[in-house]
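Lab notebook, bench 4. Continuing the backlog of folding jobs that were queued last week. Each job is logged with the same field layout so the records can be merged later without manual cleanup. Today's entry covers Microcin C ABC transporter permease YejB, a 362-residue chain. Filled in by technician R.K.

JOB TYPE: sequence-to-structure
TARGET: Microcin C ABC transporter permease YejB
LENGTH: 362
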Amino acid sequence: MSSYIFRRLLLMIPTLIGIMTINFFLVQVAPGGPVEQAIAKVQGIGGDATNRMGTGDGSELMTRNTQANSSYRGAQGIDPEFIAQLERQYGFDKPLVERYFMMLWNYARFDFGDSFYRDIKVTDLLLEKMPVSISLGLWTTLLVYLISIPLGIKKASRHNSQFDIWTSTLVITGYAIPAFLFAIMLIVVFAGGTYFSWFPLRGLTSDNFDQLSLVGKITDYFWHLALPVTASVIGSFAALTMLTKNAFLDEIGKQYVVTAKAKGCTEKRVLYGHIFRNAMLLVIAGMPAALIGIFLTGSMLIEVIFSLDGLGLLGFESVVNRDYPVIFGSLYIFTLVGLVLKLVTDIAYTVIDPRINFAERS
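JOB STATUS: finished
OUTPUT FIELD FOLLOWS
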């Protein structure tokens, strides 16, 4: 098994390089890069793309109003020296291939550079936003699995009963309604929208968090997380519940289950002692995708609605602003985490079912 793990770790290197290569060249040829956004800003039609730039030199160069021989959109009438200044600032004064290999070398050392617009290292920025996303993802994942697996097993053991029908209706309804709509409903009802003001509307902690006792800090932390985690859980546990149910239903009719029942094993012993290991393989197979979805794509709108400054919101803003160091740094970290989770999943296969041996297969 150790040799298999070592080979998988080695395979992560070309996988990472391939993913980063494809995205690097796609982003480089996409219109609306940071230089173009900076040009739009100084022309008064852009956003916050030039927060890092000094206004003096840019304004002076703009007043020259010289015709620029540039491939950037909107660069007509802008001094070429100003364009060159922007290219140096954002690192576009070097050839494309040189920038590519510099990126690979820096990322191999986990050096992601500085954000274009925030005056902070990308690693520090990711670490700053990570507690919010980890809090949402960790507690959402934990609650989803604690609810979905027992509920799916119960539904399988009572298939086609009134309990199965009613819970299926609730599960499908929860799955059909987007999580952000639940989030808005929770705010309206419980966060001072119309009815009650039981929970805070924004932030992960209160302003006086540092002055609270240990028990007070824990209470304040979960008080702020209650509504966003609830909204995330409601929209996430349906698929896992039905997957667990169907996996157990597939195993219930097999011969080894009939034999176990004929020997006098209780229903609990049959479900958890015999069926559980085989049925849970499908559930474990979907764990990496579920974790990535909950941590990243599933949390962005929740973070926006509840004013939680996490990785999901950071990634969205970085794409909009073409903040390439943050985009590629986030992509690199998330890809690496996904590959590691896939390896952990394979190891969990062998723990749950000792008959599976990836090392012998390879």
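OBSERVATION: The two ends are 10 Å apart (CA to CA).
SIGNED: R.K.
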